[in-house]
Amino acid sequence: MKSGFVKNIIVALFILGFSFCGNCAETVQNNSNPNIIVILVDDLGYGDLSIQGGKDIYTPDIDKLFEKGMHFKNFYANCTVCSPTRASLITGRYPDMVGVPGVIRTHEDNSWGYLNEKVTTLPEMLKKAGYKTAIIGKWHLGLESPNLPNERGFDFFHGFLGDMMDDYWTHLRHGNNYMRLNDQVVDPKGHATDVFTEWAIDYLKNQKENDSPFFLYLAYNAPHFPIQPPEDWLEKVKNREQGISEKRAKNVAFVEHLDNGIGKVLNSLKELGLDKNTLIIFSSDNGGHLPSGASNGNLRGGKQDMYEGGIKVPTCFVWDGKIQPRSESYNLGLTMDILPTLCEITGVKIETEIDGISLYKSLKGEEQGSNSRSVYFMRREGGSYAGMCYYAIRQGPYKLMQNTPFEPLELFNLVNDPAEKSTLEENSEKFNELRYNLAQHIREAGNIPWQKQKK
Fold this sequence. Notes:
Helices cover 30% and strands 17% of the residues. By secondary structure, it is α/β, with parallel strands linked by helices. It has a 10-stranded mixed beta sheet with strand order 9-8-5-4-10-1-11-12-2-13. Strands 15-16-17-18 form a 4-stranded antiparallel beta sheet, with helices on one face. The longest helix is centred in the middle third of the chain and has 26 residues, at 246-271.
C-alpha cells in the first residue's frame, strides 16, 4: 500500500512538474548567459556621430544601435591613446597597473608598454562561464609570445596584431604584415574595414549552431589615421556637403564607411536570429584626432590630450529586453568598468584585483553612485615627450590635469565649466587634495614594470 502511495506521489509530481515546465527549453534559453559583442572603434571623435550632434555626418547604423539601448553621456576611455585603453578593457585595471602606460609599437626604442604576463584577462574569465571567445580586428597589446591573443584567453583571432596600418589597402605597418588567422600569417585583399566586417560576419555564422554563448571583441582600426575612405564614399560626402573641406570630407566619409560596416554586422546578427540574447557594447579607445579632421563637438582638445576631447567617448550598451531602449545614464563610466560589468551579468566570480566597477545597476536603471570615485588617466610617450608620463585625476565634478609632461597642472570644475575654459585656483584645498591622491596612484603604479624583464 505504501508502495502504491509513493508511486502515485511520484506520478503526480511528474505531471505537476511537466505542467510547470512545458516551456522549460524556452526558460533555459531565456535565462542563459547572453552572447556578448564589444565593438571598439579607433579615434572616433565625440562629435562624429549624428546621434552625438554631428551636423555634417550621417551614421544611421550606429545611431540606431544607440537608440536601442542605454546611451552613456559620461563615459571615458582609460587613456588618450590606443594600447592603454585596450589593456584596461581586457583587464579591468588602470593601464599603468598592468604595464601599459603608453603605446606598444614595433620598434623597442619607441615602445612604451608591456602587458603583464600574469594578469587574468576578460576572455579568460568568461571562459569559466562556458563562453567561446574571439577577437576580430586590432589587437595592439603585443606582437610576440606570450602576449598574442590566443595566449591571452581568445580561442579565435582573425585580425591585426599591430598598432596602426600605414595603408588600409595593403594593411602593412613598417613594411610588416601583422594580419593573422590565429598564429598564421594571412594576406587578405580589400579595405581593412571591409575585411574585418566580413570576418566578423563569418564568425557569427559559425556561432549560429553553437550551444555555447560567445564573446566577440570586434576592434576596427578605423577611423585612425591615415584617413583613407573608399573613393565612392568620399564622393558621396562631397556631393552632399557643399563647401566641406577636403580633410573634413575624408574623415566624414571614413566614419560613414565604418558605420556601414558595423551595420552589416548587426544586420547579420539579426538575420541569424542571434540578436535577441546578445549584449552589445559600443565605444572608442580615445577621442578624435583633430589634425585628421575629426570633430569632438564642444569638448576641448582631442586624441593625446587630457582635456575632455581626448578621453570622453561615445558609448552605449544594448541588450534586447534587458536594457531600456532610448535610455540615458549620466553615471561616470570608464573602459575598465566593462570587465566587472560583464562578469556580474554572466555570474563570473572575479578572483583577481581590478580597478573598475560594475555598471550593471546603471544598465537596469537603478541608482548607482559611480560619480564620487577618484579615477586616473595617464599616458607615457617618447619623441617630443621624452619618455615622460602625464596625468589627470577626476573626482566628482573636479578634474586636475596636465596636458603634456611640460605643462602645469590645471584644475577644472566640469559641471560648471564642461568646455574647460577657466582654471580654478592653484594650491586651493581641492587642488592639493587631488594632487596628493594622484601622487599616491603614481607611487602604487611605480611597482609595475612596463618593459619586458630581461632574463
